[in-house]
Write a structure and sequence with these properties.
With 206 residues, the protein is an alpha/beta fold. It has a domain of 138 residues: P-loop containing nucleotide triphosphate hydrolases (Rossmann fold). Helix content is 48%, strand content 18%. The strands form two sheets. The protein has a five-stranded parallel β-sheet, sandwiched between helices. Strands 4-3-6-5 form a four-stranded mixed β-sheet. The mean pLDDT is 92. The protein binds guanosine-5'-diphosphate (GDP) and adenosine-5'-diphosphate. The site of guanosine-5'-diphosphate has 15 residues, from helix 1, strand 5 and strand 6.
Length: 206
């Protein structure tokens, strides 16, 4: 029998909602058995970040050559830098039967939806827009002007949550992490049941 393909899981949501934080909590948990797809980016490496662990850091020229080579499932320009998901790793990992987890901003998620409609899309939402603003201020990595731009973007992005399969409110990090893991588990069970039903139908039709 052909090996079952892994599931593609996409976690997205507005900047500052806590995507990176929730993703880290998920991958710190030894129970998690999906693979994280490391993105490529042209943004500067931050202190403490490791090339090939947090991101693959590329020059603009390198990134644009990769775009030409169709090396990305999706890519987006976000606050002046490119970010993209390498296609090879994702395909190979899914073909090996493992689940792949993407943590990407919303334009990229929309592109993935077109290419992989069967993927599982989870939107991480803030409890309120005020929480979002506080988190962006609290993180202290952006200027007041950039924060305002991101909040304005977030207003539009929050409207897009209807396009997702699930919405998880990031109130408490560990609760949000648990919800994402439960959604993935439930999705596997659902797909297995649908598969089994089809198999039964095909056998009965013979
Ligand atoms: N479209 C897309 N977005 C990405 C990718 N990798 C990371 N991002 C998103 O890019 C945004 C900026 O990421 P980053 O510069 O690390 O800043 P931070 O997450 O806001 O600290 C975040 O919303 C990430 O989720 C990717 O491969 N594709
Ligand atoms: N549930 C939460 N409650 C309070 N603060 C949070 C929560 N999740 C994340 N944060 C904080 O909000 C800020 C933005 O989180 P981050 O993971 O960088 O967001 P994103 O990756 O979506 O841009 C960080 O300072 C982080 O520590």
């Amino acid at each position: 029998m052909e090996k079952e393909k892994g599931l593609l899981i996409v976690l997205s949501g507005p900047s500052g909602v806590g995507k990176g934080t929730v993703r880290k909590a998920i991958f710190d948990d030894p129970e998690t058995d999906f693979e994280y797809s490391i993105s490529m980016t042209t943004r500067n490496q931050r202190v403490g970040e490791v090339d090939g662990v947090d991101y693959f850091f590329k020059s603009k020229e390198e990134f644009e050559a990769l775009i030409k080579d169709d090396a990305f499932i999706e890519y987006a320009e976000y606050v002046g830098n490119y970010y993209g998901t390498p296609v090879q790793y994702v395909r190979d990992t899914m073909d090996a039967g493992k689940d792949v987890f993407l943590e990407i901003e919303v334009q990229g998620a929309r592109q993935v939806r077109k290419k992989f409609p069967e993927a599982l899309f989870i939107f991480l939402a803030p409890p309120t827009l005020e929480h979002l603003e506080q988190r962006l201020i609290g993180r202290g990595t952006e200027s007041q002007e950039v924060i305002q731009n991101r909040i304005n973007e977030a207003r539009k992005e929050v409207e897009m949550m209807n396009l997702y399969d699930y919405v998880v409110i990031n109130d408490e990090v560990m609760e949000a992490k648990q919800k994402v893991q439960t959604i993935v588990e439930a999705e596997h069970l659902k797909r297995e049941r649908i598969e089994a039903r089809f198999r039964k139908m095909i056998l009965e039709a013979k």
